[in-house]
UniProtKB/TrEMBL annotation:
Belongs to the Cob(I)alamin adenosyltransferase family. Gene3D superfamilies: Cobalamin adenosyltransferase-like. This is Cobalamin adenosyltransferase. Residues 10-23 have a biased composition (Low complexity). Keywords: ATP-binding, Cobalamin biosynthesis, Nucleotide-binding, Transferase. It is an enzyme of class 2 (transferase). It comes from Rhodoferax lithotrophicus.
Amino acid sequence: MGNRLTQIATRTGDNGTTGLGDNTRVSKNSLRVHAMGDVDELNSHIGVLLCEPMPEAVRSLLIEIQHELFNLGGELSIPGFELLKPQAVLALDDALAEHNAALPKLQEFILPAGTRAASQAHVCRTVARRAERAVVALEGQEALKDTPRQYLNRLSDLMFVLARVLNRHRSDGSVGDDVYWHSTRMARADADSATS
């Protein structure tokens, strides 16, 4: 493969525009650039998550997701192009089913908290949702394939599940748990039902 990046500081964006992969220039505030930026930010947050201890199966999955997000970013940077394949969404569905099956059913809402790895997975979840909203906004103006929206939607769900997996992972072999939300309203309802 030849060198693709020969110069980083081009100064061509000093006027508030950026170049797309098809050599057109658009405002840095365009919906397409917002979507590209959110996907890039999500990929970077996954890179931070990968700095944490985790099961090797989760690590391999996240590395594959980083490559798919790079494909997604490339697809967004070239209007009308397709890089992210529908099989990538199916891979997330498979991962969701596999990891969800190993978790206990949720009885209450959980907080985005716990271990650093789990908390960072929750950050990835929220950035994935923002990237999904950016793609939906772009779809309102330009024709896009369904796969980018579906991939980000499914990835946000998967990051929630992986946060639960990571809250259980301990390098000493012990098993952790979710961090549950203590709702005052729910506590009152429980107290009222106990006294009636």
